[in-house]
Structure formats: structure tokens, C-alpha cells
Amino acid sequence: MWRLILATVFSFFPRRWRMAMPGEDRIPWERGATISGILQSLLAIEALILWYSLSVKTWVSNGVDSALRGGAEVPEQAIGFAGLAFWALHPLTWVLAYFAAEGMARILGAAFTGHVMGMLPLYLADWIYGKLTHRPPEGDARYSPGMRAYADSFVTALKDEWHSRRLPQAEDEVTRLQRAGEAYLEIHSCRQKKEWTPPRIVRVEEAYYRLEETRRASPPRPYVYRLRKLEAGVPGRNVIVYEVPPGFMNQN
Fold it and tell me: Which residues contact 16 (CB under 8 A, 6 or more apart)?
């Protein structure tokens, strides 16, 4: 339960901050991000309703009082429409609407693609800090991607999930390869392995491999992962444990 609470709270933060947490690989980030996205959207919508109630009623009341004092005959509907227009154009309305929309995007990303998105203000704070401290721009664990790359990554994840759900479920096909004295595994999967990003370490049975390459192929297993066998084991909390489906290991 406490892991889900941690995931809900810290899923608001940029990925670089989340990856620095101890035991982050055991935290259910997708579920936490879904819950935090729901909370963000609900709170933003509630704030919008409250802001609408306070602002429009106040502006309409002030407009009616002003018209009566001036002796003008202005229909209350016109004053109400003007108050609604001012509310819609007010910067606070746009800010609250953005947070509501961002929360919905975070729900979609986490629930349907496993893409955990932090909040934009915190991302910007991390980006500014990186610029001020001249942080090197290499490695996801040390630097956040640019806004365009962030958006492209999210859109690509949505497309991948949509195409993956249209493919029939099938076991992974694993092939052992020998190239220039090096041992490799090539895994063909019908579903994208979201945490498998080079150069992650993967343990297969008792051997350790480094993920060297990911690419696309034709259905029904369009996701291909090539791993190079390591001479020595590298146990650690960030190692991915992979179980080969029985009967799906080939030799090449």
C-alpha cells in the first residue's frame, strides 16, 4: 500500500527524479500515475467550477449594480454573457484548464501505454536547474529530454499501444546468435517491453546480457530486442529478469 502511495505522490515529478529513488524498480509507477492524474484532473475541474462561481457571480453582481447606479437599462443576460467571457479569457481559467487537461493526458499515458508523465512545472524547474548548473545532456537518469522529444515520446507510445492491442497475443520467440565470437540473444515480441531501453542489463536464466539494440519488424512479433552476453554477472536492483517461454528458444 505504501508503495502505491509513494508512486501516486512522486509520479508528479520528472523521470530523472523518480529514477533516483531507492527501490524505484519495485514501485508501481503506472498505477500511481493513473491515480495522481485522476486526482489532478478532479482537483483542477473543481477549482474551475469554484473559480467560475466566485468570479462570474461577482462580476455580474457588480455589473448590475453599476448599471442601476448609472441609470442604464442593460439586460442581465448581456451582463452575464460579459462575465462569462471575462472568465473564459482570464489567465487563471487557462491555467486551471491546462492542469485538468494535463491530468487527463497523464491518465491516458499511464493507464494505456505505461508512459509515466510528470507535471510540466516540475519538469521546467528541473530543466532550468540543469541549464543553470550546466548539467551534461546525456543519459535519461541525468537529464530530462526536451519538450518536443517529451511530446513525441508520448504520442509514439500511444500509437505503439494502439497497434499492439490489435495484434494477437503470442509467446516471445528467442534466438541464440553467434557473431564475431560474441554470444547474442534476439527476442521477437508481440508486445513492447516498456522498460527495455539500451543499455539495460537483462538476466536470462543464469547469464547476464546487455540490451544493445531495439528495432521494428513485421507482425505478429514486431518488437525485436538484441542482447549481448556479458562475461561477468552484474547483479543489481536495476537488472531486468527475463524468463524464456518454454519451447521458443532457437539456435542460429
Answer: 126, 140, 141, 142, 143, 144
Residue 40 burial by CB count (10 A; 0-12/13-18/19+): exposed, middle or buried?
buried
CA distance 19 to 141: 6
Let me know: does 67 contact 151? Beta carbons within 8 Å: no
pTM: 0.55
Contacts of 56 (CB under 8 A, 6+ apart): 80, 83, 84, 87
Dihedral sign, Cα of residue 157, residue 144, residue 202, residue 186? positive
Per-residue pLDDT reduced to its tens digit, 153-211: 556 666 666 666 677 888 899 999 988 889 999 999 988 887 888 888 999 988 999 99
